[in-house]
Records
---
Amino acid sequence: MEAAVPQLNALGLKIADRIRETGPLSVADFMAVCLGDPDLGYYMRRDPLGLSGDFVTAPEVSQMFGELVGLWLIEVWEAAGRPKPFALVELGPGRGTLMRDALRAARVRPEFLAAAKLHLVEISPVLRARQREQLASVGEVPTWHHRLATVPKMPVLVVANEFFDALPIRQFVRAGGEWRERVVGLDTAGRLAFGIGPGGLIEPDVPAVAAGAEEGAILEVSPASTAVMAEIAHRIRENGTAALVIDYGYARTALGDTLQSVRRHAYVDPLADPGEVDLTAHVNFEALARTARSEGAAVFGPMEQGPFLLSLGLVERAGRLGAGRDTALQNEIRAAVERLAGPDEMGTLFKVLAVTAPGLTPPPFGPRT
Ligand code: SAH
């Protein structure tokens, strides 16, 4: 008897048809379909966040995260000369928790709230609905966009937490002395399988670190991330103010396969259940910084999330939040501080990059890097 071939799910069948028609997909195209297919894509049909979902993000760990980001935004807005009006933009706002907490904290500066025009860039209809509810609770009615390009041109403050990791990456494999594109095709049993694309594919700008790479080494580039960062930096350069990018990733370009798939807080095979599992890659902060600089913006960091939040006053904020409350709540707050800033938790793997108009130094960064 033949071994049973695992059934492809609905999106798997759609991808398999496309592969039969036009050949294997780049890893970037595979990611884009899995996350954003209009009918079956991962983000289109569910709220993946929280304990009952697939992953937990910093704003979902504690309100302190969004509150500190809110205070950061106010300081930068003031340093920029209080532009009015300005576009307050969040990329990939999830449940809207970060923005809700930031805007609540910003009530200390009513002029900031009066000047802010809230624009959210979000592809998921499910999450847009969550964002609408959460922001209504602080009296805000945002405008939604599918892409940053349609946000009106004016001074801008951009926040992106765990957004860039969801943007597609291309992978290249060192094979026979060349960098060849890693692709997703079909194996002889009809299952999705990684392969190496035919020769003659466009080579990425090969970074210095890739010189002398061994056979089988993997190099990742994210043209989608570069394009978004170029647009952010261009707007900052033209119309002023800043962006705050927080994500997991690496400060310097390195070789390695960082494509990862998560379901219910555990790593799973990225090919096993397309559209039903989260699919992300580590963010290359060196590449983002280089892009922002080349568009004429100033760049600060990347700094690790732990030191960033501690410098902004995480411990003091935790103290005020817990003052006079019961021990259970105080313990919860203490655990959240550890989760957000602890070196073995989100404090080291997560990095913070600030991009500003020339001449503006955002907290808590020192002299421009
Ligand atoms: N920032 C939130 C959510 C992170 S999850 C938090 O920290 O909790 C990633 C978010 O980006 C989700 O809201 C997802 O729907 C959105 N997203 C993913 N790909 C996107 C794309 N190409 N364009 C716009 N939003 C996207």
---
Amino acid sequence: MASEINRRDVLGGAALVGAAGVGRLLPGDGPRSVGTALAQENRASTPMASVTPHIGTPTSRVDGRAKVTGWARYAAEHIPSGLALGPGLAQGFVVTSDIARGRLARIDPSDALRAAGVIDVLTHENRLPMPDSDKAYQDDVAPAGSPFRPLYDDRIKFSGQPIALVVAEDWETARFAASLVHVEYETEAHVTDIYRQRDKAVALKEPPSPAEAPFFPPKPRGSPEAAFAAAVVRHEGEYYVPIEHHNPMEPFASTALFEPGGKLTIFEKTQGVQNVQRYVTSVLAMKPDEVRVMSPYMGGGFGSGLRPQFQVLLAAMAARKLQRSVRVVLTRQQMYALGYRPAMIQRIGVGANAGGTLDAMLHEAVTVTSQFEDFHRQETGWSGLLYTCPNAKYTHKLAHLDLATSCDMRAPSAATGVYALECAMDELAVALKLDPVELRLRCYSDRDQNTGQPYSSKALRDCYRQGAEAFGWAKRSPGPRSMRDGMELVGWGMATGVWEALQMPIAVRVTLSANGHAEVACATSDIGTGTYTIMTQVAADRLGLPLDAVSIKLGDSTLPQSPVEGGSWIAASVSNGIVTTCEAVRAELLRLARAVPNSPLANAAPDDVTFVDGKLVSRRDPSSAVSIADAMRNGGINPIVEERPTTFPHDGAHAHNTHSAVFAEVKVDEQLGVVRVTRLVNAVAAGRILNPKTAASQIMGGVVWGIGMALHEETLVDHVFGRIMNANIAEYHVPVNADVGDIKVIFVDEPDAIVNPLGVKGVGEIGIVGVAAAIANAVYHATGRRVRDLPITLDKVMA
Ligand code: MOS
């Protein structure tokens, strides 16, 4: 076992060779022996072992060449081809509201319309007909409430709201003419400050349906107040996370190609092509086959592309109204009106008994949403789930502000809820004079504390152990301000991370040709996470083909059904969907192979054969084989096409989660208060890792974001105007290379035969969870100063 752990540990390092010191970009594949070792390990630990070794092998992105050569086109880069006859592509520029609340008293496009090259100006006064029911606007992942309707009427609900679309022959003209649209407002009093709305925040009560229960606070247990009052050691603290924005590199954009007859093909930036397709057809009262949404590549979403955004409706409406193709690209500034990680105030009380284990947990959250939709996730649920604690109570209140609706942003609710929890645990460890890892081990739980269910797998102990060892945690001197490097104070902090291992119904189509090529099709997205690559690996393994014999089709609403790509659920969902469909292809191939004259597999049962190198091979006698080509040629079938829907019925008896242990080193300039994250180890337990290379990349991206959350990121609202002040990446600070030290990612071994056949749990979100807390705890250890308001800027360190 020890050697197995070492190999995994080496793998974490190997995937990051060359990353030390600058560690963000992954180099080429790690040493071949590492991949092979892991592949063998995976084979050994699964009963449904595949013979070709792609699953578990560090594999470069199959779409990497297309991306670096520019061959891959993003939403704003598509141009009309034979699809769209008639005049070329028109360009739309969005006019946005300067006020946060009120109504449009007058909107006058006449000057804009007089500008040469302007085609039209769409407003609420001349738009196409739109439905009046909220339901028509509610997309697959809409929260409760009344969704925003672009150009529906004269109401202003948030600053930055679209109020007109200027369409011109070129983008510069559209942008210039947008400045010529005259707008008069009737303003109303607005509120955009969570602290001002705190007392009016509305407590979430019972979930309206069992399906929504995961978004509501967990049920209380025991006698929390009494237990807290009686605790031997108590800590109570208030923690704050500001509004943050996703800032994906690719701007939001829609290219709506108009076909004679009125059909639209929309190249779109989205995490869910079918979600957008349903939304556009619903709002514009079009038939399903009249709108096709394509998103073959996406330059980052992080949750901002889960819901259809307003530019797609504006582009589609303009294309229908003008009977020509229209592109709408948002500016960076305009993207700040699309949704954000809700600001939140959290109060946590933790009480421990004399033995240093948790006795009471009180967790209250106030989060921000708009005045028209109730977006919330379960910030407090993680405190309920993670540690053994007999008495616990949770409340969650919503503060309604005159802003756009908040939305999911990487590890929604966990990045923030676990930040408060893990800082509070650190403060409790200080009060108990316990090592922070030791406190967590004493409270370790093998059951989800909210439900009492055991985990399908939980290798968090291994995360603590391997993470601590890789970091050198044993050398930590416990006292604050007790470690130093020249002019800098050194701090070591740690935190636990947790996320869900979710999976969703999905359908996959596999088309296998006799020449040994397989096409795998599903309407899922690859939002930059590596979905193309893992789909290729899984299909190649299941069909016994080399990677380059498999091609992937995704990001097209006409392909087999997929949920939005979010929640870290696509890797598990689509890879197991591929397994299911490949089983059908394999059964058909075996039927054909058995029918070949003098077939050496004539009596073979499904379990008797493996698929290797384009052949069906007997497990008992590897010399008994029939090639896929021979089987299909003999059967006269080419291609084999199978499509299967796959659902993942929860067994109802287990909790499915991923976990991590994050160890961070900071160095703090004692005189200037500047905080640097010099080293960070993130040890992750996420079931089977399909592709250690792209998975490590996911975790690193999460870590970098966690550094931003801890030290840099904050959307600043001018509450006088109700307007975001730093709507650009110059003033909204994200980590740059100089802010990011050495990052080491470790995947601990976590076999899981329960969660799904491949044992995959997903890694898209776990990488950020716990990072901000580990850094905040390290800043305390370095300086003795506890900063509970994020981001930890130098003024707070020096205050
Ligand atoms: Mo993720 S925040 O579910 O895109």
